[in-house]
Amino acid sequence: xxxxxxxxxxxxxxxxxxxxxxxxxxxxxxxxxxxxxxxxxxxxxxxxxxxxxxxxxxxxxxxxxxxxxxxxxxxxxxxxxxxxxxxxxxxxxxxxxxxxxxxxxxxxxxxxxxxxxxx
Length: 119
Fold this sequence. Notes:
By secondary structure, this protein is mainly β. The chain is about 0% helix and about 60% strand. The radius of gyration is 14 Å and the shape is elongated. The chain starts with a strand and ends with a strand.
C-alpha cells in the first residue's frame, strides 16, 4: 500500500520561507511525476508545482520565482522550497504522486499540511 506523508508546514510571517517535504512509501515500481497542490478555504484545489521523472518542472504563475520544487526519487522524496511567502499562499498543501505499483499506474495524495502566512 502506497502512502504519501507531508511535513514542514506551519505559520510564517509574510516574506518568510518554508520547506515542505513529501515522502512516498510502499511497493513503488517507478515514479512518473510528483507535485504539490494547494487548497485555500472556499477555493478549488490548484496545482502549485510538478516535477517529472526526467526533472522537468512546471509552476503555477503566482509562485514562479518564489517556489522551487525538487526531488530525490532514489529516496522517493519531493520538496517544495517556498520563499517570499505572501498571505495569499495560505492553504493546505497536498503532495501528489503519479506512480506505478504492482497493480498498475495510479495517482496518490497525501493528507495535507497547513501553511499559514500571517503577521
